[in-house]
Amino acid sequence: MIKYFLHPVDARLERGIGVLLLFLCGSLFSYGLRALRRTTGGRRGSGLTGQDANGVPLRRSKRGWMWNQFFLLEEYTGTDMQYVGKLHSDGDRGDGSVRYVLTGEGAGTLFKIDEKSGDIHATKRLDREEKAYYILHAKAVNQFTNEALEGESEFIIKIHDINDNEPRFTKDPYMASVPEMSDVGTSVIQVTAIDADDATYGNSARVVYSILEGQPYFSVDPETGLIKTALPGMDREVKEHYQVVIQAKDMAGQMGGLSGTTTVSITLSDVNDNPPRFTKTLYEFRVPESNELGSSVGAIRAMDADIGPNAEMDYRIIGSDGPGMFDVTTNRSTQEGVILLRKPLDFEKKRQYSLRIQVENSHINPHFYSSGPFRDEATIKIVVEDVDEPPLFERASYIMEVKEDAARNTIVGSVSASDPDDKRSPVRYTIDRRTDMDRVFNIHAGNGSVFTLRDLDREESAWHNISVIATEFNNPRLMSRVPVYIRVLDVNDNAPTFATNYETFVCENAKANQRIQTVSATDPDEPLGGHRFTFSLAPEAAGKANFSVRDNKDNTAWILTRRSSYNSLQKSVYHVPVVISDGEYPMQSSTSTLTIRVCTCDREGNMKLCNPEALTARVGLSTGALVAILLCVIILLIIVVLFAALRRQRKKEPLIISKEDVRDNVVSYNDEGGGEEDTQAFDIGTLRNPEAIEDSKQRRDIIPETFYPPVRRPVLPPSRDNNGDVRDFINQRLQENDSDPTAPPYDSLATYAYEGNGSVAESLSSLESVTTEGDQDYNYLSEWGPRFKKLADMYGGDDSDRDS
Questions:
Q1: Whole-angstrom Cα distance, residue 30 to residue 37?
Q2: Which residues, at least 6 apart from 545, have a Cβ–Cβ distance to it below 8 Å?
Q3: pLDDT tens for residues 161-186?
Q4: Residue spans of beta strands (DSSP E) within 439-523
């Protein structure tokens, strides 16, 4: 059996050694009993525990290990390793045959065991706050055979706590607020401190709170750390911020305990406990009488010691000697009362106003009603200053009327304006010509009478809107305007006419007194009672009339036939003069002619055919006819364009397109040849041998010679050699072209290569070149100097050299 031996207890633990021993004894006894019931084996002695399923007796072996716990002080400061305890097996007889083995948490690093004696030591300084206990396993084995003498046993090394940690607050600093004027005992904030020491043993982790700074305003509960107000009537306007220092001390606050502190910043939040107050009882403002409506006259401000919404105020007028003249509004950003002008000021009528203004908090706290009224009053004096004002019209606008037949210079009406200032400056009137571009009206500069300058026509313009300007004689820059609306009254000056252009026809088979048309009239005049038109046949046509006019008394009339059977061959068109009169004064009348055409109709009276004149006049050209005519015009245009294009293609182009287009040939033709083998354009050999010209050759750019007899050219005598002068040849050709009637009627350019006489190298032109290379003698190249030596070597030498 392994036994555990504890080391002597440190002197610091003497106070609890008795309690600890009792606890250990009870624990060992109870744990030993439980271990014996759970395990088998151990000591060699055994006892019967029952029978198995086959009836064989069972025996339980007793173990030689004993459960135990080791206690070790944390934060050991000694120089030697701290002794933990000792392991001993019953099988150890002290002969060194037993070896003790330690495994588990910290074995070999934090804890070491003497294999022979079983002594356990801690190698390092341990901290209970890092790890409170370690679980290890002990085993006794044979030194020589490594066989286990006892079963493995588990034991615990528990770190015994000492007071080595001070309380620490969860925050530093704390921020809190409490309303001002709070009652005593109002909770502010709760602070919390945590001690890392063991709270289950002693008072090392028992924390007590106390206040170091902040009295007598605040207090703290020693057990919970809840901070409360301790002084009544704390006013934010007197002191707003407080710094409170709270201490947390372990060991229940006893001497020797460790402590920690934190700072709590407490702010008194504002409540509406102060009324607004004006800084003065009388305010005075001066304002010009020319201020516009809605403009600011001045601003006043009451002072409130509160802040935020508690300092918001409302201003209102509670008394005034000018009702409705002024108003007051609150500027929410500045909490000022702004006085506004609501009616025009007039220095000449009233030069001073007095207002009574009241200010009151917008949000009142009922808790402070007893503190008094949260309002204040002040008097406002407003002095009106005189300003040189422009003339003032008696009316805001004028409406005038004039008849359209009024003569020129007729007075339509008048306007009136005066200087509102005390000096009463004279006023001059003018018309803004931008509103009367046609200069129909004018105004008398002195008395403001408006009169006409031109004849009026209501049918052309029924209203005229002009603007009259009034200026002071002494200060023309001061002016005012007024709109004048002139209505032109109607006069019966227009005769009525047909309402539309009627197209009337009568059937050949028409009967007498048959209605063929209903006519009406129109008149641009507008009489008050409405139009009353009368219709009648003109007197000059009444005796021989084929038609009659019946007035319906409703501003319409019927056109009736006076006989039957009209013949379009005898007369196809009738003209009926109709006299139309209005019933106004002076009466206006006009004669309108109604054109009636004779047409062939069916039995129902529907028109079938009219004479060509009538048909053309009535029907006109249809859409299909117009489309057909348009297509014909387009086709003709296309034919003309194609014909013009063909004519341009047939036109011959000149032989010489450009003055710079010079060829080796005599004549430049606008057709492409077949290269050097093409001899139809011109035979270049004729330049060397003019006698070899073929007379049968025909030129392509002229009419064939069948229409004109060929010109006989004189034969030149043969030259002395083939390198004769070409000058005579050119002159001969020039004469031939001048006298040739078949030559084209325009000039043509011929170019000849001619070097002239006296050249050392003679002519290099291909015109005099021989046809074969063998006939040419190149020995002269060697006489030209070193520059032609290469050519002389290539082409010079004997014929034998070239043949080889």
A1: 11
A2: 537, 562, 576
A3: 777 788 999 998 999 999 999 999 99
A4: 441-443, 449-452, 463-472, 479-489, 497-498, 504-507, 515-522
What is the C-alpha to C-alpha distance for residues 597 and 400, in angstroms, rounded to an integer? 52
The gap between the terminal CA atoms of the chain, to the nearest Å, is: 136
**Burial status of residue 473 (CB atoms within 10 A of its CB: 0-12, 13-18, 19 or more):** exposed
- The CA dihedral of 495, 501, 503, 504, to the nearest 10 degrees, is -20
- pLDDT at position 204 is 78
Tokens 């050119």 sit at which residue? 730
Residue 148 DSSP label: B
pLDDT number for residue 765: 53
Residue 633's SS3 state is helix
Residues 6+ apart with CB under 8 A from 206: 195, 199, 250, 251, 252
List all residues 6 or more positions away from 610 whose beta carbon is below 8 Å from its beta carbon.
505, 568, 572, 597, 598, 599, 600, 618
What is each CA distance from 411 to 395, 407, 415, 444, 453, in whole angstroms? 19, 10, 12, 10, 10
Distance CA 291, CA 389 (A): 11
Task: Report the mean per-residue pLDDT for the chain.
Answer: 79
The 3-class secondary structure across 726-755, one letter per residue, is CHHHHHHHHHHHHHCCCCCCCCCCCCCCCC
539-583 pLDDT tens trace: 888 777 889 999 999 999 999 999 888 888 888 999 999 999 998
Rounded to whole angstroms, how far apart are CA atoms 107 and 134? 9
pLDDT digit string (tens) for 724-767?
567 787 788 777 777 777 766 666 666 655 555 555 555 555 55
Nearest 10 degrees: CA dihedral of 754, 756, 758, 762?
Answer: 10
Quote the pTM value.
0.43
Task: For residue range 430-442, list pLDDT tens digits in order.
Answer: 999 999 999 999 9
Backbone dihedral angles phi then psi of residue 156, each to the nearest 5 degrees? -120, 135
CB 328 within 8 A of CB 280: no
Look up residue 426 and give its two tokens: 């004279």
Query: Which amino acid, residue 49?
Result: T
In whole angstroms, what separates CA 410 from the centre of its chain?
Answer: 62
